[in-house]
Amino acid sequence: MPDxxxxxxxxxxxxxxxxxxxxxxxxVIEGRTPEAAVFPGSVDEVAAVIGLAADAARPVTPWGGxxxxxxxxxxxxxxxxxxxxxxxxxxxxxxxDLTASVEAGMTVEAFQTALRGRGQWxxxxxxxxxxxxxxxxxxxxxxxxxxxLYGTARDLLIGxxxxxxxxxxVRGGGxxxxxxxxxxxxxxxxxxxxxxxxxxxxxVKLRPLPDHERLVCIPFERLKDAGAAVxxxxxxxxIPNAIELLDAPAGAALGxxxxxxxxxxxxxxxxxxxxxxxxxxxxxxxxxxxxRPLPDGTWPRLETAARAAFPVVAAVMSFSVxxxxxxxxxxxxAGGARARGLASAWAxxxxxxxxxxxxxxxxxxxxxxxxxxxxxxxxxxxxxGGGHGTLEWAPLAxxxxxxxxDDPGAAVRIMERIKAQLDPxxxxxxxxxxxxx
Amino acid sequence: xxxTASGKRDLRQELEAILGPGAVLSDPDELLVYESDGLxxxxxxxxxxxxxxxxxxxxxxxxxxxxxxxxxxxxxxGTGLSGGCLPTEGGIVISLMRMNRVLEVDYDxxxxxxxxxxxxxxxxWKVGPRGYYYAPDPSSQQACTIGGNIANNSGxxxxxxxxxxxxxxxxxxxxxxxxxxxWLGGKTRDACGYDLAGVFVGSEGTxxxxxxxxVRILKKPQAVKTVLAVFDEIDRASEAVSAVIGRGLVPAAxxxxxxxxxxxxxxxxxxxxxxDAAAALLIELDGLAVGMEAQAERIVAACxxxxxxxxxxxxxxxERLLLWKGRKSAFxxxxxxxxxxxxxxxxxxxxxxxxxxxxxxxxxxxxxxxxGNVFHAGDGNLHPNLLYDxxxxxxxxxxxxxxxxxxxxCAEVGGSISGEHGIGLxxxxxxxxxxxxxxxxxxxxLKSAFNPTGLCNPGKIFPTKKSCGEVGPVAxxxxxxxxKGLAQRF
Lengths: 437, 490
Fold this sequence. Notes:
The complex is a heterodimer.
Chain A: H1 3-13, E1 18-19, E2 36-38, H2 43-55, E3 60-63, E4 80-83, E5 90-94, E6 99-103, H3 108-116, E7 120-121, H4 134-140, H5 147-150, H6 153-156, E8 157-163, E9 169-173, H7 185-189, E10 198-205, E11 207-208, E12 212-219, H8 223-234, E13 242-246, H9 248-253, E14 260-267, H10 269-285, E15 292-294, H11 299-302, E16 313-320, H12 326-339, E17 344-349, E18 354-360, H13 368-384, E19 388-393, H14 396-399, H15 412-422
Parallel strand pairs in A: 2-4, 3-4
Antiparallel strand pairs in A: 1-2, 5-6, 6-10, 7-11, 8-9, 8-10, 12-14, 12-15, 13-14, 13-17, 16-18, 16-19, 17-18
Helix pairs in contact in A: 1-2, 8-10, 8-12, 12-13
Chain B: H1 5-19, E1 24-25, H2 28-31, E2 48-50, H3 55-68, E3 72-75, E4 92-95, E5 102-106, E6 111-114, H4 120-127, E7 132-133, H5 146-152, H6 159-162, E8 169-175, E9 181-185, H7 196-200, E10 209-216, E11 218-219, E12 223-231, H8 234-246, E13 253-258, H9 259-268, E14 279-287, H10 292-305, E15 310-313, H11 317-328, H12 330-333, E16 340-343, H13 353-366, E17 370-375, E18 384-388, H14 395-412, H15 437-450, H16 480-483
Parallel strand pairs in B: 2-4, 3-4
Antiparallel strand pairs in B: 1-2, 5-6, 6-10, 7-11, 8-9, 8-10, 12-14, 12-15, 13-14, 13-17, 16-18, 17-18
Helix pairs in contact in B: 8-10, 13-14
């Protein structure tokens, strides 16, 4: 990086907020080291940094807590990491409005803690809430088990402030819960992986904290029966806030010795009690055992249950399929891996058709091509039912054989045009996203 | 652009070749029916109105329009309230009313695939016998179409708990502005790539024309409880809204009906609202039967504490429907007390309700007009209805000016200029109240990615000098069917 650019960056954000050299080790992805990591302290500074990067044609990788840094194709060989950790304030919280505005670098946990003090929460429960920032969760559309009832970031984000690829500050949406003025920019930025703009502030809808919440585990001998119980549960009057389906290896990570159905309920105590009793009845009729409550500490472990089944994983893939196809995908996918001598673990937000699978690794490193073959087969299984698969984590040797992102079909042309319109010089996370965007 | 008479004849032949007989209108008398939507202040005449029955039809029409550089706009039932489907620059109105089938219902996965011309309520009728319903419930749901709901990202009373249209749409088959047919999203929950379905919903027909829509259907709740809280002062009713939310309750719906509206509704339907009340809150809870009473008690306590003089509970389903009839038919009921009205659609933070309602009343009084308020209080989505007489010189201009003032107040308290009706033609010039030039330029670039020629529904959303022709609020003149005594204007 030219010294002149470094000097300008230091002058913009302060010398101590520009990292270079060995200080960059936390920001090395797939062996690629950025030229500098810059930590602006305000929205204006973010805009100035992106403006400088754009003028110098330097790619920019937005960085929150770094928990999803390895998702997608690795960043371009040279460029800046733009860290948002100094933008971490709660800007506004009016409990009577059930909304709050925050800076993007605030961690989910810090945000929840502040809200909890006033009897509210934001219904986002991604993994790594301690590290993950709200901006990062929005940009990667991260979610957790409670999405079953409360939806994902797209359902909660009502306003967003971004710095665009030319260093302009743009706002979309607003601060009110219902708003159709202008295009829905919040939807555009949720899940866009930092390729269209850098999220710097967000306004989200909140919910009152429930009086009571409980998580119940129902062990099954056969995954197929647990799948039937999911179907019965979805057709019932019950209103669970989470429906997790785990195969035996993933169940073991939560202390179950077999496939398991894990269901959450919230509300008044009498509502939770009644629903737990109904769930038992319904699950036993499908071949399940008596349910037992799980400790509250289990909630954050559900999102990573598949990955936690192995001390070392070789790859993690997630799928979005129809809820009715979840159990079949899990069984067939695990069977396919087994046939190639690979162990896998599967866990699903079964009610919404979001499935995650991990390939286990052992002492002897597996051939990348064997892993790639299994991943391709899994993706085909999901596609056959109208779904798709994303390779969430794998070494570069595997990613080079299996595309990280699935093929969005003819819509890819629109995505490319959006990228070309909004980031014409291709400096925001180039090459990381779908179709090389 | 203007078509020559012979050019128009040729085009009509081409359109008929695509669509067959009985599916193309070009006679000015017939086109008149399509010159307005539900906001009759704005009018514009199309060169053609066409009635396709398939995505292939729509695609062929759009390609033809592109070849001729003619603007085109999709239209559903015409119940829109912002002039969003008006052919402001002439061209082709593509009516989707003949594409009104439910193509598929998948109860296991709780989704339905429908055509855009399907009437909103008809989907709930279709899936109702199996215990399901479609949640977004605009007040016009007996007439409005799901395609129109997509364009405006429509809401409704129950969106307080269940979210607006976009929260219930998973995917769409879209005829792009160049005629290509593309799926955005699909039947599964998470998008592959950018959330184009999410971006498309609410784009007011400027990103293309949806020809198939995948929506979620929900299980009907086990139990419903509806109460009417009656207040002697509107401020107390406004405070009750925040009090309910502040107690950790999110009702399925929380609607406010003011004194003037109660008069109109009682004149028209006799729903049993107390005529002497300053305001009433219609509050509905739904969910499990267990705990319903306990939750209702919390609501009643919040209303009593803020000064409700009386709380009525619907004891039967017919009592419940009668209470809702008053709310859902309020707009039509204004016809009893005023020859015309213009509905506003501002949104404010809920806690600002008392202040903003005062300001609305002040603005309207200063303009020498009357206002009826009936709105989604729980969401902070105001609907001041400015009552006026279009035959009285100057009334329309005063309504338009007062409307702009009200929008400014909404913007000043951190709100929005539209909660569910869309920007369309009506509010495009108000966009700078809440968006900067940079915000609007960014949105325009997004539009260019979908609609580079601008032929797809031009003249909407973005602030612009009103184009030529009959666009913009125009002086009242009776519609031919009014003159013949066949219809009356509400």
